[in-house]
Each structure stands twice: as structure tokens, then as C-alpha cells.
């Protein structure tokens, strides 16, 4: 007799006839469930029948033009994911040739699907990217002719580029293409670039850059930019990084130093030049540039890399000088964020106490996490930050944030038990009394405090 708990063992005990009845009842009125049930039946008949079913479903999806509403979005994503997984897990182990062809058909639905759906979270793009990652190994198992594979890769990267699904496709297919296929793909891209009737040079050049990266050829990569563009810092940094990887650091430094420094230098250029200086043995210059980059950007990685290369004890003194610079040079909010991230919690707490009068309580997205981090070792500083946020909410009548302000006040009450000295600040009871005097009629806030 079957048990009452709903689990696989008890369902099996119902017997095949009863289970079949339940399945038929469940799939009635649900096209996705019907397709899954039919796929399960076809799987038992062999991969050929299952492949035919998937092929028909993909053709239907590609033909459809109607917009997918948000109510149907989840079911549609599940349907597509299920088709992909059938190819990868059910068909590929038995018939890699059929799976290879079906995956191409699956990828060719991407333009229609992404044009018909909202994909702000990237769920559909991720689903297609997973298919791309599996296509190469399956192509290798299917022993696809590299020239044929190169033609298909060319078609995808030139015809299906609008939704950025195939940005890494050449790299994903490189192993399956092999040297022969990569050279064939390069020839197709180059021929198209030389064709005056071709419309879409940027797509071809991006493809040739990806081929150059696969072949570890920085010169071929650089050739895709016109000479004036190579002097642009952002472009120069990309080429220099590839020259570095090829062991050509001196050339990378010449390129970087010849770039147009009249415009604002991007972080990529700065990092590339630091790495290049290090590679050519100009370590002091690299250290100086790390310090300058830290002072200008407050990026903690520049400071960490700088300190790591200093002699013992000298790093402590330099770190103190760096943290002094942060506090003196930057706004209290930016300095606090840096000190919390570094971390230098003692300095962060002192900054909060000293600069409490100019902290903007509306910056709750920075202040609330900082208060949580400071709370254990510096409860008074955490309380200051929470009070600032509470007063900003109540003074501004920001009713949508009353529940958050109430939570902060309860956190202040908890911290009160461990704060021995409030210094120049009012204690918790006085603070609450002042709030009631000024905001006693904001009943929604006080009600939130009780819930």
C-alpha cells in the first residue's frame, strides 16, 4: 500500500496505470508539460525520433513573431531551456552529429527570441551562451570538417551580432576549429572585409580581433585599428596588453608613451603602463605611477600593489601617509567608503565622529553597510551613522523609508547597552526624546517602531 507522503517511492507504488492517469490529468491544458511528456515518450523510441521533435519545435519558435508577455516569459524560458537540455543530455551522447546540427538550429533562434522578449536579467542570453559553450566539444566529437565549421561560425558572428550573444563565440569554438578552421575563418573574414559590397566592417574587424587573440598575434589585432586610432589611450592599452603577453614589453611601452595623453587617461591605460614599466625593469617608475594613480583615483588595488613592493616597516609608514591623504583630500563620504573597504575601521570611526555634522543621511546606500561593519568594534560611530539616516528620513518626511528608520533606531537601542561614553553626543534616551518632540506626529514612523 502506498504511503501518504508525496515522494518518488510512494508514487511508484501507485502502479503504472494510475501514474499514467495522473500524468494525463496534469498535462491537460499545459502545452509545455505536454511537450515534456511527449519528449519523454520519444526518448524511449530512440534519438532520431526525439531529434525530429526538437527540430519541429525549434522551427516553430523561429517562425513565431508575437511578443512574449511577462506572464508567459518564465514558461517560454523553460521551454527553450528544455529544448537545449534535450539536445545536450539526451541526443548528444547517442548521436553527436544530430546534436551538433540541432544546436546550430537552436542558436539561430536567438535573434527572434531576444527580439520578442524582455531580457533585462540576461536569462535568455545566458541560456544561449551555455549552448555556445557546449557546441565546440560536440562538434569535436562529431568530427565536423573544420572548413564547414568555419563557414558556420562566420555566418553566426556576422548575421547574429545585434544581441551580443556571440561576443565570445570564436574563442568558444577555437578548439573545435583547430588551426585549419581558424585560418579558414580568418580568410572568410578578410575576404568579406575587402568586398566593397559588404556592409558591416566593424563586425568583421571584431571577428578578426578575436581570431588574432586565439592565434596570440598582437600585430594582427593592432591591424584592425587605423593608425590614428592606435594612438588613442583606450586602444593603445588593449594592444599593449597583448604585446606584453607576447613578451614584447619594450614595444608596448613605446606604444603607450606615443599615445594621445591630452585626453583623460583611462584606468586600462594606467594599468597597462604600470605593468609594462614593471616588465621592462623600470620598477621605481612603476611604483611612482602606482602611487600617483592611487592618489588620483582612490582605487585600493593601486595602493595594495604599491605597499606590497616596499621594504619591511616602510610599508606601514606609507600606508599611514596614504590614509592621511584619503581623509584630507576627499569628501567625508568617499573617504569613509575607502576606509571601510581598506579596511581601516579605527580611522573610519574617528572620521565619522569628527565629521558627523556634514554627513549626508540620504547616502543610506553607503552609510547603512558602513554602520553594520563598524557596529562590533565601534558602536558609537555606527550609532552616529544611524542617527544621521534617521534624522534625514524624519526631517524630510520620507514615509517610504520609515520602516528602515525604525530599524535603525532599534539598532541604536541595542548599541546603547555597550556604549560607555557618548562624549559630546546625547545618550540614547535623550536622542529618542528629541525625536518625539520634533516628530511626534509622524505616527507611521512610531507605529513602524512597534511592529
Which helices and strands, and how do they pair?
Blueprint: H1 8-12, H2 16-27, H3 31-45, H4 47-63, H5 70-91, H6 96-107, H7 110-116, H8 123-141, H9 146-159, H10 169-194, H11 201-214, H12 218-222, H13 227-230, H14 233-245, H15 249-257, H16 267-279, H17 283-297, H18 300-308, H19 314-329, H20 332-341, H21 345-354, H22 364-374, H23 379-395, H24 402-416, H25 428-439, H26 443-450
Helix pairs in contact: 3-4, 3-5, 4-5, 4-6, 5-6, 5-8, 6-8, 8-10, 9-10, 10-11, 14-15, 14-16, 15-16, 16-17, 17-18, 19-20, 20-21, 20-22, 21-23, 22-23, 23-24, 24-26
Overview of the molecule:
The protein is mainly α. It has a domain at 358-451. It has 26 helices and no strands. It has helices spanning 8-12, 16-27, 31-45, 47-63, 70-91, 96-107, 110-116, 123-141, 146-159, 169-194, 201-214, 218-222, 227-230, 233-245, 249-257, 267-279, 283-297, 300-308, 314-329, 332-341, 345-354, 364-374, 379-395, 402-416, 428-439, 443-450. α10 packs across α11 (201-214) and α22 (364-374) runs antiparallel to α23. The longest helix has 26 residues, at 169-194. The radius of gyration is 31 Å and the shape is flat. The two termini are 49 Å apart. The mean pLDDT is 91.
Salient structural properties:
mainly alpha; 26 helices; flat; 73% helix; 451 residues
Amino acid at each position: 500500500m502506498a504511503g501518504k507522503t508525496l515522494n518518488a517511492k510512494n508514487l511508484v507504488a501507485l502502479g503504472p496505470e494510475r501514474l499514467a492517469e495522473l500524468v494525463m490529468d496534469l498535462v491537460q491544458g499545459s502545452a509545455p508539460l505536454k511537450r515534456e511528456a511527449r519528449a519523454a515518450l520519444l526518448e524511449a523510441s530512440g534519438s532520431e525520433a526525439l531529434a525530429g521533435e526538437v527540430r519541429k519545435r525549434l522551427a516553430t519558435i523561429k517562425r513565431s513573431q508575437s511578443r512574449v508577455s511577462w506572464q508567459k516569459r518564465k514558461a517560454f524560458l523553460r521551454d527553450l531551456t528544455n529544448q537545449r537540455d534535450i539536445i545536450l543530455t539526451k541526443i548528444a551522447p547517442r548521436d553527436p552529429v544530430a546534436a551538433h546540427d540541432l544546436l546550430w538550429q537552436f542558436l539561430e533562434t536567438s535573434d527572434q527570441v531576444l527580439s520578442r522578449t524582455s531580457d533585462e536579467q540576461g536569462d535568455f542570453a545566458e541560456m544561449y551562451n551555455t549552448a555556445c559553450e557546449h557546441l565546440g566539444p560536440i562538434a569535436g566529437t562529431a568530427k565536423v570538417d573544420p572548413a564547414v565549421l568555419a563557414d558556420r561560425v562566420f555566418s553566426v558572428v556576422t548575421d547574429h551580432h545585434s544581441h551580443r550573444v556571440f561576443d565570445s563565440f570564436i574563442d568558444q569554438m577555437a578548439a573545435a576549429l583547430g588551426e585549419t578552421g581558424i585560418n579558414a575563418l580568418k580568410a572568410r573574414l578578410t575576404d568579406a572585409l575587402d568586398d566593397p559590397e559588404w556592409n558591416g566592417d566593424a563586425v568583421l574587424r571584431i571577428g578578426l580581433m578575436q581570431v588574432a587573440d586565439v592565434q596570440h598575434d598582437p600585430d594582427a589585432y593592432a591591424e584592425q585599428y587605423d593608425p590614428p586610432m592606435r594612438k588613442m589611450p583606450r586602444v593603445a592599452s588593449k594592444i599593449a596588453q597583448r604585446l606584453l603577453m607576447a613578451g614584447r614589453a619594450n614595444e608596448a611601452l613605446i606604444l603607450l608613451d606615443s599615445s594621445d595623453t591630452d585626453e583623460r587617461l583611462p584606468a586600462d591605460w594606467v594599468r597597462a603602463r604600470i605593468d609594462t614599466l614593471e616588465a621592462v625593469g623600470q620598477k621605481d617608475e612603476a611604483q611612482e605611477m602606482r602611487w600617483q594613480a592611487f592618489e588620483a583615483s582612490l582605487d585600493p588595488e593601486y595602493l595594495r600593489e604599491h605597499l606590497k613592493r616596499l621594504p619591511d616597516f616602510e610599508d606601514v609608514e606609507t600606508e599611514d601617509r596614504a590614509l592621511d591623504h584619503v581623509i584630507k583630500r576627499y569628501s567625508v563620504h568617499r573617504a569613509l567608503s575607502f576606509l571601510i573597504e581598506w579596511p581601516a575601521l579605527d580611522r573610519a570611526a574617528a572620521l565619522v565622529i569628527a565629521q558627523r555634522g556634514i554627513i549626508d543621511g540620504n547616502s543610506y546606500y553607503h552609510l547603512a553597510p558602513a554602520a553594520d561593519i563598524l557596529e562590533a568594534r565601534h558602536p558609537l560611530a555606527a550609532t552616529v551613522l544611524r542617527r544621521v539616516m534617521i534624522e534625514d528620513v524624519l526631517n524630510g518626511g520620507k514615509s517610504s523609508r520609515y520602516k528602515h528608520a525604525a530599524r535603525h533606531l532599534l539598532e541604536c537601542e541595542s548599541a546603547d547597552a555597550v556604549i560607555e561614553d557618548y562624549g559630546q553626543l546625547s545618550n540614547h534616551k535623550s536622542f529618542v526624546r528629541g525625536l518625539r518632540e520634533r516628530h511626534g506626529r509622524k505616527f507611521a514612523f512610531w507605529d513602524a517602531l512597534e511592529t
